[in-house]
């Protein structure tokens, strides 16, 4: 595509955008689990209006846009209070969970450079359930990720394995509250004790679960300890664009105190421009997400979040009970909030995900690793609460269909193709054959992905990473061949 020689009218371009978007599933129907965290229309409208109010303002220099400094301070204060931070707890507003977690790791690295200068190759301990953004952080900031298993039944970090993995080079432990996949919380008090004993840092990743855990606690539900009241916790990330229902681009990273937070800040004056003081990764920083986050916290309020939290809890309990009545399925671990995954010993869950998708349910297939079986994940959201009975009914029917289906011959073909070869060093040619075998054409994934997922699940993670990088790299380099819909009102100028 090229920029058009003559501008298209506002209505024209908006029509084209709507036509593009019409091809996507509508998240308002509550059949997509995750991706869009949506509360009721009134909340969505409030966030949109607040976002628009500040969408052109720039939080890069809050000495000019003082209102944005105030909004950030107040959002951070509300977040800190929500996770029981004391008056020392301090933080920053960021663009999302990945930025918050990356900042926590960069801060730990720079803290260690100052406080543990003998360490040459700093290490970070990650339970296998930790979000990949920590691996990205390790990659960007040159830390060694040390992966430890989770308990196979509870799916919470195996504390003995963590203790055994700590070395003199360890600077940071990661615990999830909750993890994305199963909604389970790692034993944060035990991790905190290890951090204190070894004089290292502990980051609690509450990006997806931290907000709702606190709401559940306030409702009187049984919630594991995970927040700033736990000794040894030094930082905590919590997304507002997830279970606080802010617009995307909204998270906070909180630190125990500002001696720690100082390592997050990048300042540079040695050039021929203004002095840059960047507490987060962005320099130019949009005001919209911040205003949206401020507005949603104040508009929904504790009473509103309690109401939403209780509805989510009831829907999750109903879903768990329904799955319990299906012979072939079981719930993975014991979810602490409204994130659940189910697995099976008898049927192929990847096939099940495809069947559900064919009926419009976007349940996420999860690979297995370290002795944990593959499973299927749901992030239960306000708009899914009304759909639980329909979902369970389709789930029962899909299970019956998949149970009767003969296993795909492709897995055997795949095994024959790679047999006798060292899978860790498969050539590009063999990988190309594997991709063709599972129906990847022109770098596009097939609609039904059970075979693809099953085969990926057989391969070591580095090979899967190579395959997926190549699929993505090819797909985004390819020119889209579909025609752009004609604008219905093709007035030739926007001026
Ligand atoms: C536990 C956890 N941490 C971090 C992230 C990364 O957040 P984001 O997608 O906002 O970058 C996610 C995203 O789902 C998550 O579930």
Helices, strands, pairings?
Elements: H1 10-21, H2 41-54, H3 66-82, E1 90-94, H4 97-115, E2 123-127, H5 133-141, E3 144-148, H6 159-165, E4 170-176, H7 188-198, E5 201-205, H8 210-218, E6 235-239, E7 251-255, H9 258-261, E8 266-268, E9 276-278, H10 288-324, E10 329-331, E11 339-344, H11 349-358, E12 364-366, E13 375-379, H12 388-404, H13 410-418, H14 428-437, H15 450-458, H16 461-477
The protein binds pyridoxal-5'-phosphate (PLP).
Residues 96-98, 101, 131, 133, 176, 179-180, 205, 207-208, 239 line the site of pyridoxal-5'-phosphate (PLP).
Overall description:
The chain has helices spanning 10-21, 41-54, 66-82, 97-115, 133-141, 159-165, 188-198, 210-218, 258-261, 288-324, 349-358, 388-404, 410-418, 428-437, 450-458, 461-477, and strands spanning 90-94, 123-127, 144-148, 170-176, 201-205, 235-239, 251-255, 266-268, 276-278, 329-331, 339-344, 364-366, 375-379. By secondary structure, it is α/β, with parallel strands linked by helices. The protein has three domains: 49-297, Type I PLP-dependent aspartate aminotransferase-like (Major domain) (Aspartate Aminotransferase, domain 2, 3-Layer(aba) Sandwich), CATH 3.40.640.10; 308-404, Alpha-Beta Complex (Aspartate Aminotransferase, domain 1); 410-477, no CATH class. It has a seven-stranded mixed β-sheet, sandwiched between helices. Strands 10-11-13-12 form a four-stranded antiparallel β-sheet, covered by helices on one side. Helix 7 links the parallel strand 4 (170-176) and strand 5 (201-205). The longest helix has 37 residues, at 288-324. Residues 490-495 have low confidence and may be disordered. The site of pyridoxal-5'-phosphate (PLP) has 13 residues, from helix 4.
């Amino acid at each position: 595509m090229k920029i058009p020689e003559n501008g298209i009218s506002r209505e024209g371009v908006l029509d084209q955008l709507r036509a593009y978007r019409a091809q996507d599933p509508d998240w308002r129907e509550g059949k997509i689990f995750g991706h869009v965290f949506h509360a009721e229309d009134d909340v969505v409208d409030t966030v949109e209006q607040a976002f628009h109010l500040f969408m052109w303002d720039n939080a890069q220099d809050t000495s000019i846009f003082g209102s944005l400094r105030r909004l950030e301070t107040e959002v951070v204060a509300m977040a800190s209070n929500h996770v029981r931070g004391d008056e020392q707890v301090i933080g920053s507003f960021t663009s999302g969970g990945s930025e918050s977690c990356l900042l926590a790791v960069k801060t730990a690295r720079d803290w260690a450079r100052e406080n543990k200068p003998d360490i040459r190759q700093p290490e970070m301990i990650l339970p296998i359930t930790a979000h990949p953004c920590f691996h990205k952080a390790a990659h960007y900031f040159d830390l060694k990720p040390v992966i430890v298993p989770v308990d196979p039944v509870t799916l919470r970090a195996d504390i003995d394995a963590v203790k055994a993995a700590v070395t003199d080079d360890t600077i940071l432990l990661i615990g999830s509250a909750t993890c994305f996949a199963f909604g389970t919380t790692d034993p944060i008090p035990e991790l905190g004790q290890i951090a204190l004993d070894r004089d290292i840092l502990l980051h609690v990743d509450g990006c997806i679960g931290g907000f709702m855990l606190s709401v559940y606690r306030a409702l009187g539900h049984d919630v594991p300890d995970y927040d700033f009241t736990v000794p040894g916790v030094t930082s905590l990330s919590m997304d507002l664009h997830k279970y606080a229902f802010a617009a995307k681009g909204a998270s906070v990273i909180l630190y125990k105190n500002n001696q720690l937070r100082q390592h997050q800040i990048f300042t540079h004056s040695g050039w021929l421009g203004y002095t840059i003081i960047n507490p987060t990764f962005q320099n130019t920083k949009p005001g919209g997400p911040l205003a949206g986050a401020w507005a949603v916290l104040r508009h929904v309020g504790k009473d509103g979040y309690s109401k939403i939290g209780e509805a989510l809890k009831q829907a999750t309990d109903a879903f768990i009970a329904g799955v319990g009545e299906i012979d072939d399925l079981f719930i993975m671990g014991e979810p602490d909030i409204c994130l659940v995954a189910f697995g099976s010993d008898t049927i192929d869950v990847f096939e099940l995900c495809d069947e559900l998708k064919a009926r419009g349910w976007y349940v996420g297939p999860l690979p297995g690793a370290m002795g944990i079986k593959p499973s299927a994940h749901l992030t239960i959201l306000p708009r899914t609460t009304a759909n639980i009975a329909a979902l369970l009914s389709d789930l029962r029917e899909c299970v019956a269909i998949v149970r009767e289906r003969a296993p795909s011959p492709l897995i055997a073909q795949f095994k024959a193709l790679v047999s006798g070869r060292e899978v860790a060093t498969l050539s590009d040619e063999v990988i190309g054959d594997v991709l063709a075998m599972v129906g990847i054409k022109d770098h596009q994934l097939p609609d039904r992905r059970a075979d693809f997922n099953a085969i990926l699940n057989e391969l070591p993670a580095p090979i899967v990473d190579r395959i997926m990088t190549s699929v993505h790299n090819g797909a985004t380099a390819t020119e889209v061949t579909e025609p752009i819909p004609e604008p219905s009102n093709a007035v030739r100028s926007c001026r």
